[in-house]
Amino acid sequence: MWSYEKRLQFPVKIKEPNAKLAQIIISQYGGPDGEMGASMRYLSQRYATPFREVAGVLTDIGTEELAHLEMVATIVHQLTRNLSMEEIERSGLDKYYVDHTLGIWPQAAGGVPFNACEFQSKGDIITDLSEDMAAEQKARTTYDNILRLITEPDVCEPIKFLREREIVHYQRFGEALRLTTDKLNEKNFYAFNPGFDKCESRNG
Amino acid sequence: MNGKEQLLFNIGVVDFTLVDLALFLDTHPTDRRALEYYRHYAQIKKQLCKEFSKKYYPLTMEEANCEKAWEWGAAPMPWEGGCE
Amino acid sequence: MQDYQDFSADVKLQEWPLAMAYVKWQHFDKVYDDLEKAYRSGTIFPDLNKPFTGRRCVQ
Q: Hey, is the C-beta of B29 within 8 angstroms of any chain C C-beta?
């Protein structure tokens, strides 16, 4: 179960509102490669993993992603909360505002709502870890794309932090995959699903 | 940064160190150096959080005072910083 | 407890089975002395610190 610490993992103190940036950065909240997808993916996958150490990695990284979700929401909130009606209209944020005012709602920059189709929980440990490694790279690329659009240090600093965490998580999922393959027969890692099949062959 | 912000920042630094160490330990559970670092910084975090909740407000529900009023609810939310 | 880090295996790359992805094991080598710098970088491990420096540079 979860407990809550009333602080952000990394400080977010944005002084200047910026509606255009907020509309981009919201993709890391509810977009296809964002933090909501990451946390739901890892926290969902952990139940079917046959190896406790891998379930531990999924739990701990999934939990950290919830803290990142909070940071991204905070960035979007601080970029929008003092906007005038003129700024809302001029920036194109009016399309979001009409349905959500300045509430935070999980969607991608293009408007696609967050949905479970944006991640998989396949119930096969090699597949799930491969998905997770890809997910971390997709998130990193999204942060790279965001960084090209920002010059403000207030916004850059937390984004750079979040981006680096994706790289560290990639290393950890890679190591979890090494732990997994070390426990399987190297002649054929794919002979059976260690989380599902009770025996290796139909005749066993 | 004022005193409160500096202490909160220091808690952030130490807790982050613990998080990065914890993820390393998840895949290297017997690494002695990592375990030693973890134990060292866990102690420091505990002390810093105790100091913060005594001086300012509770960071966790467990640290919250519940004698005269529900102190936990009165504490500021983490996203409030920024353009004030 | 099984010792997971068989680092000696990491040198025998040629012998590893096909059709699998392998990430090199990280050793607990260097940790930033300046923890505030580590915090701002996003990791305590200098070996994992890979900043982004790309720019489009098309007119």
A: yes
- The ipTM estimated for the assembled molecules is 0.94
Cα(A4)–Cα(A69) distance, rounded to whole angstroms?
A: 13
Contacts for B5 with CB less than 8 Å, ≥ 6 apart:
none
B6-56 pLDDT, tens digit per residue, is: 999 999 999 999 999 999 999 999 999 999 999 999 999 999 999 999 999
The predicted model gives A12-31 an average pLDDT of: 97
DSSP chain A: -----SS-SS-----S--HHHHHHHTHHHHSTTSHHHHHHHHHHHGGG-S-HHHHHHHHHHHHHHHHHHHHHHHHHHHHHTT--HHHHHHHTTHHHHHHHTT----B-TTSPBP-GGGS---S-HHHHHHHHHHHHHHHHHHHHHHHHH---HHHHHHHHHHHHHHHHHHHHHHHHHHHHHHHS-TT-TTSS-TTT-SSSSTT-
Nearest-CA distance from C43 to chain B in Å? 7
Nearest chain B alpha carbon to A74: B79
Among the partner residues C5, C28, C44, nearest to B33 by beta-carbon distance: C28
> Which domains are delineated in chain A?
19-183 (1.20.1260.10)
Out of B8, B20, B26, name the one closest to residue A7 (CB): B8
pLDDT tens-digit readout, A79-138: 999 999 999 999 999 999 999 999 999 999 999 999 999 999 999 999 999 999 999 999
Contact C23 A171 (CB under 8 A): yes
Residue B80 lies in a domain: no
**pLDDT number for residue B66:** 82
Instruction: Note down the domain range covering B69.
Output: 3-74
Q: pLDDT for A140-179, tens place per residue?
A: 999 999 999 999 999 999 999 999 999 999 999 999 999 9
Distance between CA atoms of residues C26 and A171, nearest Å: 8
CA R_g for chain B:
15
Task: Tell me, yes or no, if C26 comes closer than 8 A to chain B by beta carbon.
Answer: yes
pLDDT (average), residues C28-53: 97
